[in-house]
């Protein structure tokens, strides 16, 4: 059972803005450890989308943005496109577990 | 270009030991300030971190699996090997290796292999 909780699914129409939450605790996100986000397209390996809470690797569209506050973090996708249909995972470090932890995952559906 | 590729037996029997090799190119583990980790994903389920090894041979393990895992590196071959003992059907998953890098304040998995599906069945 993951210590980072995400909504199982989020959906939106093309062009809309959606957000995915990642809720942690004082031993991970709240302990100032960075949050990273990964996108997993169907049948493929995960790919880093956001690192260090807010940074986009080169090649990632600026439609994707990350934020962090307190014990939670969020991934926002603006101008939703059909190609954004994928599973999204947050990831951080937990000092109580001494472990790198992933979120429960969120499936994004474009209506 | 940085690439990683997982290899190993894809079908193991319960109680057997799994050995997976990650062969990478485009970077070195010595000396470089990076690491290589293993992450798995059971069918239809979330990602789970397993183990990490760094350029200085520092090793980290998932607390829940630590007793079953070993991780080693062969710098000359650009390979990292993960072994997991006493395999069980619940260990059926796609196993990924990924480079572990630091760009801001914390480490993250910046490049992933394609993964290899390991099935545990008698």
Key terms for this structure?
heterodimer, A: three-stranded antiparallel sheet, 9 strands, 44% strand, B: 122 residues, mainly beta, 11 strands, 54% strand, globular
Question: Would you kindly provide a written description of the structure presented here, covering whatever features stand out?
Answer:
- The complex is a heterodimer of chains A (111) and B (122).
- With 111 residues, chain A is mostly beta strands.
- Helix content of chain A is 0%, strand content 44%.
- Chain A starts with 8 loop residues before the first strand and ends with a strand.
- Chain B contains no helices and 11 strands.
- In chain B, strands 2, 4, 5, 6, 9, 10 and 11 form a 7-stranded mixed β-sheet that branches. A 4-stranded antiparallel β-sheet of chain B has the order 1-3-8-7, with no helix packed on it.
- Chain B is globular.
Question: What does the secondary structure layout of this molecule look like, with pairings?
Answer:
The complex is a heterodimer of chains A (111) and B (122).
Chain A: E1 9-12, E2 18-23, E3 36-40, E4 47-50, E5 64-69, E6 72-77, E7 86-94, E8 99-102, E9 106-110
Chain B: E1 3-8, E2 11-12, E3 18-25, E4 35-41, E5 48-54, E6 59-61, E7 69-74, E8 79-84, E9 93-102, E10 107-112, E11 116-120
Parallel strand pairs in B: 2-11
Antiparallel strand pairs in B: 1-3, 3-8, 4-5, 4-9, 5-6, 7-8, 9-10, 9-11
Strand percent estimate of chain B: over 45%
The two chains with the largest interface, and their residue counts, are: A-B, 28 and 23 residues
User: Helix proportion of residues of chain A, in percent?
Assistant: under 10%
Low-confidence stretches of chain A: none
Provide a short characterization of the protein structure:
The complex is a heterodimer of chains A (111) and B (122). Chain A has 111 residues and is mostly beta strands.
């Amino acid at each position: 059972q993951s210590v980072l909780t995400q909504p199982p699914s989020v959906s939106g129409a093309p062009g809309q803005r959606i957000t995915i939450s990642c809720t942690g605790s004082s031993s991970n996100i709240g302990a100032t450890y960075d949050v990273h986000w990964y996108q997993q397209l169907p049948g493929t390996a995960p790919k880093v989308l956001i690192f260090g809470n807010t940074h986009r690797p080169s090649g990632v569209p600026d439609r994707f943005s990350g934020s962090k506050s307190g014990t939670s973090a969020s991934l926002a996708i603006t101008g939703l496109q059909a190609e954004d249909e994928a599973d999204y995972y947050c990831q951080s470090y937990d000092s109580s577990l001494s472990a790198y932890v992933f979120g429960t995952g969120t499936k994004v559906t474009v209506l | 270009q940085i690439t990683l590729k997982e290899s190993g037996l894809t079908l193991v029997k319960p109680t057997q030991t799994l050995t997976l090799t990650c062969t990478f190119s485009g970077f070195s583990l010595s000396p470089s300030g990076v690491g290589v980790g293993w992450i798995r994903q059971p069918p239809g389920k979330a990602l789970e971190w397993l183990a990490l090894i760094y350029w200085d041979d520092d090793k980290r393990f998932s607390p829940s699996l630590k007793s079953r895992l070993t991780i080693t590196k062969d710098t000359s071959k650009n390979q990292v090997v993960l072994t997991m003992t006493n395999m069980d059907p619940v260990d059926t998953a796609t196993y990924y290796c990924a480079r572990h890098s630091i760009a801001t304040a914390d480490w993250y998995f910046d490049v992933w292999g394609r993964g290899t599906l390991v099935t545990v069945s008698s």
